[in-house]
Design brief:
Helix content: 55-70%
Largest sheet: 2 strands, antiparallel
Number of strands: 2
Strand content: under 5%
CATH superfamily: dinb family like domain
Strand order of the largest sheet: 1-2
CATH topology: Four Helix Bundle (Hemerythrin (Met), subunit A)
Order of helices and strands: HHHHHHEEH
CATH class: Mainly Alpha
Number of helices: 7
Radius of gyration: 16 Å
Distance between the termini: 34 Å
């Protein structure tokens, strides 16, 4: 599936910003794989002195941003599995700020975050590579909103790309 095949009606407006950072001609599994190859390099490029840096009071640290990305991808994987199995049960949302507050970023080294990202992303690639075109069109319900499985996959990619941009602009 190409990004250009995802319609506005495939996801809530809130998520469209994540979709809009993905090139229209990009294939979903290829983009997931591209990020598997290049995002760990970005993580490793962050200077050690910036790891626990926050650009303003009450904002996440660099480490918390990376753990947020891992948490979110895991949540999206679960949603993807449910949608891929045509499960129509409404799925609950999650409070990213509460999760970030409970995440033990001090317990993670840079190498462990890289390893966790690679593990989680490989699972996402394996999951999405098994879905048919029909599967990717299925709309499930999460956080009281309908979203297609294909849009969810691209949102996973866009979420990483979006936060990478925020890290570059505000943290580095």
């Amino acid at each position: 599936m190409k990004r250009s095949e995802v319609k506005d009606s495939d996801c809530p407006e809130f998520y469209r910003g994540y979709l809009n950072v993905i090139p229209e001609d990009m294939e979903l599994v290829q983009f997931l794989e591209n990020q598997l190859n290049n995002f760990p390099q970005f993580i490793r490029s962050i200077p050690e002195e910036k790891w626990n840096y926050s650009y303003a009071p009450g904002k996440w640290t660099v480490a918390q941003v990376f753990l947020h990305l891992l948490d979110t991808e895991r949540v999206f994987q679960y949603r993807a599995l449910r949608f891929g199995r045509k499960d129509t049960t409404p799925l609950a949302g999650f409070d990213q700020d509460e999760w970030a507050a409970q995440n033990p970023e001090a317990d993670y080294s840079r190498a462990e975050i890289v390893e966790s990202f690679q593990t989680v992303r490989k699972a996402s690639i394996e999951l999405f590579s098994r879905f048919s075109r029909e599967d990717l069109d299925f709309k499930g319900r999460a956080s009281d909103q309908f979203i297609s499985l294909g849009a969810l996959g691209f949102i996973m990619c866009g979420h990483i790309r979006y936060h990478r941009g925020i890290l570059r602009e505000r943290y580095l």
